[in-house]
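Make up an example, fold above all:
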Amino acid sequence: MSARFLMVSPHTRAVKGDDKIFAINQAAQEAVKKVGAENVVNATIGALLDDHGKLSVLPTMIDLLKNLPPEEFAAYAPIGGVPRFLEAAKKSAFRDCFPEGYIEAMATPGGTGAIRNTIRNYSAPGDSILTSDWYWSPYHTIADEHDRKIETYSLFNEKNEFHLDAFEQKIDALLRKQEQLVILLNAPAHNPTGYSPSIDEWEAIMNILKKAVQNKHKKIILFVDAAYIDFAGETNECRAFMKYFSHLPQNILVIIGFSMSKSYTLYGMRSGAAIAISSSKEVVDEFKMISQYSNRGVWSNGTRPAMIVLAQVFENPDLLAKVDAERAAFSNLLFERANAFIENAKKVNLDICPYKAGFFITVPCENAEEAAKELQNDFIFAVPIGRGIRFAVSAVPKEKCAQAPEKFVKAIRK
């Protein structure tokens, strides 16, 4: 058999097969054609759908987009983002919980762009990027694309709390090998488990980082992936942890990944920002300079209409109140679905990862691939992710969320 003929450069990664989530979603769509939508549970989709399977969108955001003048659709945005948007992104990310320090924001295509720039600019080829053992799989893709590795710590201890000891031990081990460390912390409303660290856990997390950089030659970049923050509870209560980003040592940089996808239901417009917080003006000025350079070298500039409507919302208190009220209705829907799943999981003794908020609930199990395939025999389509199966309560009506745990038990046992 002859060797494969390849045209790609030798440094390019070997890519095999389709994206797992999209492949399972496609299988769910095929099942709908065969047995009807009412008989299929498609729990693959990381977006908020209504009970009829239609994308839930904030009406005010769509109205604002429709009423933009043509030039706001057609014109380029500045490479770093429209200044009005950058101010709005900071206000949206922090609300009433602004940390004390120097803060700069730079536009990116969704939160994914912020992750990409952080990994590219704050780690070296061959470095390890640290995240939890339950993590959003594109973290690995982005790291691999830039010749970095993902290393993990156990997210949960035996009490199903944040595993502070494992976190600290892994940081210490990696800083013995590298001068600086990028940490990807997906919170609050973690994807895929729905976990949010408590305020006490956040204080402990930041104390661990401060201890780790007492050696002034070491540097930590904490990337807080806050894509789901507006579905994580009361607006300011779920942001209270941000006070711990104030007055940090100069060799700790915090970057917030801000996204308009979930919070403003503009998934396809790919608008977001990286927001840097530091006790050093020099550090945030450097962040701004290198981020603009990266933007120009990869995607040039972002989507102007999305930037303009976010600016409009935060410049008008009435519009902001309207958007917040519309989102609150979606949050209530999400809470009811998640609660239906959790309550019925208790009834059938189905173990789940500790869920606080967000779009996903994860069921730990061995042989997740086989169990997920068995679920498909009952027309339940969920995503196997290593040691568990991710179920998107964001996409499944309450009644079907209530029915799913019993079928999970059946599939796992079989």
